[in-house]
């Protein structure tokens, strides 16, 4: 019996196919906790920037930036728990926020995306000269440092941005 997948998640960075953390999505798919739906883009512009350690952040500053390209997945409740943990929600790295995306066929879908936490989003946007990306791509992924390989892992992103 197939597991219910009541959540639609918009992936725009390292969880996308071909990127460093897509293995998590593959694991969720193997456990029948996720299904790839389509490629898509945000209906409204949002800033997408690369922060410290090459980490991509979609920022909840609607109207700034671009319509951001990504992928949509239908996921189970169990998958959301794992994704929330991976994205560091309880540690204040990301927030899971509703976002409308447009599938490649033109259908608008209510999804949720992992946005950089509000505590640093505007600071990060300003530190990037208010210039964002349309898509997190191969060039940006070359700069990505896996969690276990990051120096000073106890520092928050705010500590890194302000120092």
From TrEMBL:
Functional note: Putative gamma-glutamylcyclotransferase.
Record carries keyword Secreted: no
Name used for this protein in its record: Gamma-glutamylcyclotransferase family protein
Gamma-glutamylcyclotransferase AIG2-like domain: residues covered: 9-117
GO cellular component: cytosol
A Gene Ontology molecular function term of the record: gamma-glutamylaminecyclotransferase activity
Top-level taxon: Eukaryota
Keyword hit for Transferase: yes
Coiled-coil residues: none
Family: Belongs to the gamma-glutamylcyclotransferase family.
The entry's keywords: Acyltransferase, Transferase
A Pfam family matched in the record: GGACT
Organism: Vicia faba (Broad bean)
Signal sequence annotation: none
Catalytic residues, chain numbering: 87
InterPro entries for the chain: AIG2-like_dom, GGACT, GGCT-like, GGCT-like_sf
């Amino acid at each position: 019996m197939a597991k219910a997948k009541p959540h639609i998640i918009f992936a725009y960075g390292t969880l996308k196919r071909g990127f460093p953390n897509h293995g998590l999505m593959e694991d969720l798919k193997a456990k029948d906790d996720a299904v790839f739906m389509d490629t898509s883009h945000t209906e409204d512009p949002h800033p997408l920037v690369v922060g410290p350690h090459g980490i991509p952040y979609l920022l909840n500053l609607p109207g700034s930036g671009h319509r951001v390209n990504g992928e949509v997945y239908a996921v189970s409740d169990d998958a959301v728990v794992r994704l929330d943990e991976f994205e560091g929600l309880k540690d204040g790295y990301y927030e899971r926020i509703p976002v409308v995306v447009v599938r490649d066929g033109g259908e608008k879908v209510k999804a949720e995306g992992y946005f950089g936490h509000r505590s640093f989003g505007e600071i990060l946007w300003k530190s990037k000269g208010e210039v964002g990306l349309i898509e997190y791509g191969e060039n940006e992924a070359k700069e990505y440092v896996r969690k276990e390989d990051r120096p000073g892992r106890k520092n928050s992103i705010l500590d890194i941005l302000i120092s």
